[in-house]
Description:
Keywords: Signal
Largest sheet: 4 strands, antiparallel
Signal peptide: 1-20
Structural class: alpha+beta
Number of strands: 9
Protein name: Secreted protein
InterPro entries: 26kDa_periplasmic_antigen (IPR052022), SIMPL/DUF541 (IPR007497)
Oligomer: single chain
Order of helices and strands: HEEHEEHEHEEEE
GO biological process, one term: DNA damage response
Amino acid sequence: MKRIAILILLLTSLAFNMNAQTQDNKNYIEVTGDAELKVTPDEIYLSIALNEKDVKDRRSLDELEGDVIAVMRKLNIPTDNLSIAGANSDMERAFWTGKKIYARKNYILKLTNANIIGQLLRELEKKGISNVNLARVDNSQMEKYRKEVKIMAMKAAKDKANYLLEAIGEKVGKPLLIQERNYRPPFYRNTSNVMMMKSADANGRKNYELDFQDLTLKYEIFARFEIAE
Length: 229
């Protein structure tokens, strides 16, 4: 019984080795395909920092939050677009009052309309809130575009294999290996491709302009195709 088990094991091992050698002995071609897609941002994220000691009338943090919400409602910006990024307290010592605690809180506000930014910033400044910065830009359909670029890169790899083999009278067979390589994320997690410029008109009114580049998605696919017999 033990001899039979050993024989079965040897035969299985031999069959596996023969199959592996068959795979290794196949004629194949290895190529890479890459693709790039420019995507226009449709989401803008602003960082809003509220600090009790930054306002002259020493309004509380709750009052400052209420002012931000009021401005958002005035401009028809959904209040759900405002989220807390972080909160803490600063303590300052004043010799005539002892210890004084000033609360501060950071928010992220998502906008889907760049044309409203100027009006938003002017309304916030009227409330004494001016610590507003551009955090990042994004696109709401980013996952869809990622898939599109990957498909484009895969097709580019297949096309390259086709014309290279056609040059020597051969044809592409089935794929043996496909790998995604060298993914380069779009530059939307910082403001390196975004500028928010402030100027004033003849009446002294502040104007705000956004200048940002399209987001760039790049993918590379490595593929190994069998050379058809």
